[in-house]
Every structure is written in C-alpha cells, then in structure tokens.
Amino acid sequence: MQTMKNILTIAGSDSSGGAGIQADLKTFAAHGVFGMSVITAVTAQNTQGVFAVQDITADVIAKQIEAIFDDIPVAAVKIGMVSRMETIQIIAAKLRQYQAVNIVLDPVMVSTSGYHLLNPAAQAILAGELLPLAAVVTPNIPEAEVLTGLTINNLTDMEEAARRIYAMGPGNVLVKGGHLAVDPENSIDVLFDGVNFHYLSAQRIAAKKTHGTGCTLSAAIAANLGKGLNVPAAVTQAKEYVTVAIENALTIGKGARPTHHFYTLYKQAGMI
Ligand SMILES: Nc1ncnc2c1ncn2[C@@H]1O[C@H](COP(=O)(O)OP(=O)(O)O)[C@@H](O)[C@H]1O
Ligand SMILES: Cc1ncc(COP(=O)(O)O)c(N)n1
C-alpha cells in the first residue's frame, strides 16, 4: 500500500550538502515524503564558495525525468538550479508532457557566496518557460528585482514585484524577505495569490551567514503541497520549518552555515 507521497527535486548537486539536491532530499526526509532527484548540474562547492560547475546534458536530464514519470506517480516537483537555456527548455517540455502538478519553482540565480548558478542570458527563458508552469514561485529579493526590473526597498516594493511576477503566469508568488531588513526584528515573506497578500513573518535570526535557506523553504513547500495542503498552509508550515532550520544552523566549515533539517525530529527522539 502506498503510504508516502513521492516528491521530486530537479536541481543542482552541492558537494558540501547544504544547498541544492542535498538540502532538498533532507527536507523531504524530514517531511515524511519519498524524495527523488533529477540532477541538472554538479557543483564543486563548500561553505565558502562554488569552485566549478559541470552541467548535465539536456539528453541525460530528459532521461532522468522520463525514468521517474514513466514509472512513479509524482505528487509534487521542486525546481532549483537550472543553470542554462538547454536545461530550462528540456525541463519545461518534459513537465508539460507529463502534466506535472504542484510545481514549486525556486528561481535560483546567484549563490549566497556570489557565484552565478544561472547563466544571466537564460534569465528571460526561465521566466518565459518555467514561471507559467509553477503553482508557487519563490524569488528572493535580488531574483525578484531581476525578474521585474524593479528596485525593492520595502514591503510595498515587494508587493509590486509579486504582482508583476504573478502576471508572468505562476499560480502564486512568494517574495522572500531574507535579503531585506525592512524590519530588523523580522524576516517577512510576501505571498500573493493574484487577489490577496499574505504576510509571513518570523523573528530575524542574527547569525553568521546561512546557506540553503531558499532551497530548504521551496522543498518544504513542495513536500507540503504533495501531502495535500493548500498553498497558504503549505507555505506557512514551510516558513515555520525553515525558521527552526535557520535557528539551529550547523557550523560544519569555515563559511556559511547549512540549515539543520532534522532539529525538531532529533530533539523529539532525544538525539540532541
Ligand atoms: N536571518 C534570517 N532570520 C530568519 N529568517 C530568515 C533569515 N534569512 C532568511 N530567512 C528566511 O529564509 C527563507 C529563505 O529566504 P532568503 O534567504 O531570502 O532566500 P534565498 O536563500 O533564496 O536567498 C525566507 O523564508 C526568509 O524569510
Ligand atoms: C546546487 C546549488 N543550488 C542552489 C544553491 C543556492 O543556495 P544558496 O543561495 O543558499 O547558496 C547553491 N548554492 N547550490
């Protein structure tokens, strides 16, 4: 009997385990869903930076997607690092072919460490091909600025950006406020469903740089949608999850700290 939902991440590999595919699969595991992956690129990365990227060919990306959808029901899909034009085009074509549902798009552009994970020339293709497929798109402030051409300094700007991105075709837009200290006390994300705005606020954690926060949040939204939650509930619970993961971020290297995906579970099990 099927007891778990199967959730797919289409993203890049982070060798240091803090972001990308590795963050997504840990997030899925923490949500009690069965995680699957289509790898778009392999990065040589650690807590201090990204040192090399090997893109996976469009043909092998297509084959990974086919291998999954031809065999396994997919309850939700998270899309992260898509690197270049050929990658975006094949993902969009295959997700349309299989009529994939509950797609969460994290429009990853530049890593926390400053490396371009999306070829800037492919930004418009990402917007044109993937945004219309997404049930939820989760830009951070710099990504929302690239997508809209706006400069975002406050909540009103975030709302305007959400409206403009919504007009590009996704079902819902979540503009994340991690990069914007509008309120130094809180990290506020703005969710727009085309009619109403919802504001998701969490106490801002003043800590050393964290990474993998956006990956963790979008993977948690996908897991929650796959489990049958509606968008506001999926996003609200994912925000609570990422806040705990950031609060308990781990010091594993000399640079940015990865989020702790299992803090609550380990605590409950008496492991920490
Ligand atoms: N210092 C912080 N304290 C609390 N929440 C944060 C902090 N930084 C980011 N977040 C939250 O983490 C999530 C990811 O946001 P953000 O860091 O902006 O995205 P990205 O990782 O894509 O740059 C959002 O829900 C955001 O509000
Ligand atoms: C493979 C991969 N995907 C996504 C990110 C973005 O994560 P962050 O912005 O936290 O560095 C990353 N660094 N690496």
TrEMBL record:
Please name the Pfam families in this protein's record: Phos_pyr_kin
InterPro entries from the UniProt entry: HMP/HMP-P_kinase_dom, PM/HMP-P_kinase-1, Ribokinase-like
**Quick check: keyword Transmembrane in the entry?**
no
What GO terms in the biological process aspect are recorded for it? thiamine biosynthetic process
The EC code for this enzyme is 2.7.1.49, 2.7.4.7
Q: So which residues are the signal peptide here? A: none
The UniProt entry's coiled-coil ranges are: none
First-level EC class: transferase
Where is each Pyridoxamine kinase/Phosphomethylpyrimidine kinase domain found? 14-260
Recorded GO MF terms: ATP binding; hydroxymethylpyrimidine kinase activity; phosphomethylpyrimidine kinase activity
Quick one: which pathway? Cofactor biosynthesis; thiamine diphosphate biosynthesis; 4-amino-2-methyl-5-diphosphomethylpyrimidine from 5-amino-1-(5-phospho-D-ribosyl)imidazole: step 3/3; Cofactor biosynthesis; thiamine diphosphate biosynthesis; 4-amino-2-methyl-5-diphosphomethylpyrimidine from 5-amino-1-(5-phospho-D-ribosyl)imidazole: step 2/3
Sequence similarity: Belongs to the ThiD family.
Quote the protein name from its UniProt record: Hydroxymethylpyrimidine/phosphomethylpyrimidine kinase
Species name: Methylomusa anaerophila
